[in-house]
Amino acid sequence: MRMVNCEKCGKIFSSLSSRLCDECREEEDKILKRAKEELYRNPGLGMMELVQRLDIPVETLEKFVREGRLVLRSKERVALACEICGREISAGKRCPACEAKVRKMARELYREAKIGEGMYSLRTIKARREGPHE
Ligand SMILES: [Zn+2]
Ligand SMILES: [Zn+2]
């Protein structure tokens, strides 16, 4: 056993091989189950359609597909741009670099102002990104 940070929520937990804490893994299992049920009813759905129908994070869905836990019949590819820096990305809303920054910032803001993660605005993030500490 070793102590690791949960890949998703950052919580420190002891793990043998998983990179997610128990809660996050349970959460992912739930999402996977819903996605599979939706695909069973509508086998032709593409990734973005699934994301919209189920309101789940596209990153999570991408991961399932990458790991072979979910098979999509539709092979749609959507051109996406990072919502922060505009760089082209293959999945999600942000490039990995911005995603990491956003998560870190969300945690900092949370600590500073004791606000929920959903309450920071994109403008705050952009302003900080262009700030002197970059
Ligand atoms: Zn977690
Ligand atoms: Zn970016």
Q: Can you lay out the helices and strands and say which pair or pack?
A:
Blueprint: E1 2-5, E2 12-15, H1 22-41, H2 47-54, H3 58-66, E3 80-81, E4 88-89, H4 96-113, H5 122-129
Antiparallel strand pairs: 1-2, 3-4
The chain binds zinc ion (2 copies).
Residues 82, 84-85, 87, 94-95, 97-98 line the site of one zinc ion.
Q: How does this model look, in words?
A:
The chain contains 5 helices and 4 strands. By secondary structure, it is mostly helical. It folds into 2 domains: 21-78; 93-129, no CATH class. It has a two-stranded antiparallel ribbon. Strands 3-4 form a two-stranded antiparallel sheet. The longest helix has 20 residues, at 22-41. 9% of the residues are buried. The structure holds zinc ion (2 copies). One zinc ion binds at residues 82, 84-85, 87, 94-95, 97-98.
